[in-house]
Design goal:
By secondary structure, this protein is an alpha/beta fold. It is built from 9 helices and 5 strands. It has 2 domains: 41 residues, no CATH class; 174 residues, 3-Layer(aba) Sandwich (Beta-carbonic Anhydrase, Chain A). The protein is globular and about 55 Å long.
């Protein structure tokens, strides 16, 4: 049994709290020891780096439970080496939680990626979107061959996830884990809002051999 779904237009401050109480009741009805087990600790096998978009909740779209996935989200699932928030999450998940998979998951229809494709000034977020424009610049030759606007948009979403996974792989955090023999794989995925399905971009790195010489650390 699942808690009653609240329609978006009906969501209020009070309905959120009531929704929580309904959810707790459902969890306990289904498993009386659910919260005892949950509060005992976490050992998720996966770190999910995704977009902050409210339509892309990691647990729901992968049909996983609380405690299964460690999650970091930001606008357009950007991975850059100057983001101490992300690096702290990455370090903790790999060196403390010992996750076995790091997944960078973008999604088609991403507003951040779409904004990066345009020239309109948005605000302070323009500085963040610059990272996606750098992805475009890196792949400008390929992007210039895609004449259809929607296909070009979709491809930049994919390339942004791929570049994000590459940036994860090139961190000293991941390289140190591999050097120490830790089992760890880095992946790039894209989620479709239209179908609900995840596309594996077939970009997976599992060891130091996958790291470019330009980024290798010792």
């Amino acid at each position: 049994m699942c808690a009653k779904t609240i329609e978006t237009q009906d969501i209020t401050y009070d309905s959120l709290l009531q929704g929580n109480r309904d959810w707790v009741k459902d969890m306990i009805d289904n498993d009386p020891s659910f919260f005892d087990k949950l509060s005992a600790g976490q050992s998720p096998p996966v770190l999910w780096i995704g977009c902050s978009d409210s339509r892309v909740p990691a647990n729901q779209i992968t049909n996983t439970k609380p405690g299964d996935v460690f999650v970091h989200r930001n606008i357009a699932n950007v991975v850059v080496h100057t983001d101490m928030n992300l690096l702290s999450v990455l370090d903790y998940s790999i060196n403390v939680l010992k996750v076995k998979h790091v997944i960078v998951c973008g999604h088609y229809g991403c507003g951040g990626v779409k904004a990066a494709l345009g020239n309109k000034q948005v605000g302070i977020i323009d500085n963040w979107l610059r990272n996606i424009r750098d992805v475009y610049r890196t792949h400008e030759r390929e992007m210039s061959t895609i004449k259809d606007e929607n296909q070009r948009f979709d491809r930049l979403v994919e390339l942004n996830a791929i570049e994000g996974a590459s940036n994860v792989m090139n961190t000293s955090i991941v390289q140190s884990a591999w050097a120490n023999g830790q089992e760890l794989a880095v992946h790039a995925w894209v989620y479709s809002l239209k179908t609900g399905l995840i596309k594996d971009l077939k970009v997976t790195s599992t060891g130091l051999d996958d790291v470019s010489a330009a980024f290798k650390v010792s």
